[in-house]
UniProtKB/TrEMBL annotation:
The keyword Disulfide bond is assigned to this record: yes
Coiled-coil spans in chain: none
Alphabetized PANTHER family for the sequence: COMPLEMENT COMPONENT C1Q RECEPTOR, EGF-LIKE DOMAIN-CONTAINING PROTEIN
Signal sequence interval, chain numbering: none
UniProt keywords, alphabetically: Disulfide bond, EGF-like domain, Repeat
InterPro entries given in the database record: ECM_structural_protein, EGF, EGF-like_Ca-bd_dom, EGF-type_Asp/Asn_hydroxyl_site, EGF_Ca-bd_CS, Growth_fac_rcpt_cys_sf, NOTCH1_EGF-like
Transmembrane feature ranges: none
Residue ranges annotated for the EGF-like domain, each copy included: 62-102, 103-144, 145-187, 188-230
Full protein name: EGF-like domain-containing protein
Pfam families from the UniProt entry: EGF_CA
Length: 236
């Protein structure tokens, strides 16, 4: 026959035992937005919010760093969860700290950006080419030769022909003319001034446009080449 006293004692013990099961809330990764959870008897507490967030314990809000005008200088700021990104445009690169865009010095880093003709001048986000005389800037980044003969059709006229050269031009003058030192044209050559005795002892040299003429003394005539005066008898 069962021991009635022992059975009653067990039932009384079960009834008065305090059944308590502790729950670890930190096992649920969503209870603390900060990601730092401290399990405590009967509850939990949250640590400080991580970088890029603001708030206390279980209430963390993302900081929009793009509202700070000092962030992403010379670039486009894109806010992300807990941080931000800087997008840099052409002529800029992301700084080593990742919080701004630095200018790229194309004049130092690129191989002859202005080719061999121009001088490279760096500026913020780009560069320009300073071209020498006789060259024209194209899109600010290169230099091309100016064809003066094509653009200024009156050059060297009316007694010469314009010949374009790299960075300049030349006047190819007609016979009896020479390139002017003062203007883009051809000047008459004063053959008589260069040689007063050009027509010999029996003639007078008279300069003409592009040439000259020998005015001969009486009894003399101009030679067949027009360069001197000869006696009339010697002409036959």
């Amino acid at each position: 026959m069962p021991n009635l006293h022992a059975s009653l004692q067990r039932r009384y013990s079960y009834k008065n035992y305090n059944w308590t099961q502790h729950i670890d809330e930190c096992e649920n990764g969503t209870v603390c937005p900060s990601g730092i959870c401290f399990n405590e008897p009967g509850g939990h507490s949250c640590g400080s919010c991580p970088d890029g967030f603001v708030g206390q314990g279980g209430h963390c809000m993302d900081i929009d760093e793009c509202h700070d005008e000092r962030v992403c200088i010379r670039g486009l700021c894109l806010n992300t969860e807990g941080s931000f990104l800087c997008q840099c445009g052409p002529g800029f690169r992301l700084s080593s700290t990742g919080d701004q865009c630095d200018d790229v010095d194309e004049c130092q880093e690129e191989m002859a950006p202005c080719q061999a003709l121009g001088e490279c001048v760096n500026n913020m986000g780009s560069y320009t080419c300073t071209c020498p005389g006789g060259y024209r800037q194209i899109d600010g980044t290169s230099c091309i030769d100016v064809d003066e003969c094509l653009e200024e059709t009156e050059l060297c006229s009316p007694h010469g022909t314009c010949l374009n050269t790299k960075g300049s031009y030349l006047c190819v003058c007609d016979t009896g003319f020479t390139a002017s030192l003062d203007a883009p044209s051809c000047d008459d050559i004063d053959e008589c001034g260069l040689n007063e005795t050009r027509c010999g002892p029996h003639g007078y040299c008279e300069n003409r446009l592009g040439s000259f003429q020998c005015l001969c003394d009486q009894g003399y005539q101009e030679s067949q080449d027009g360069q001197a005066c000869e006696g009339e008898c010697s002409m036959y």
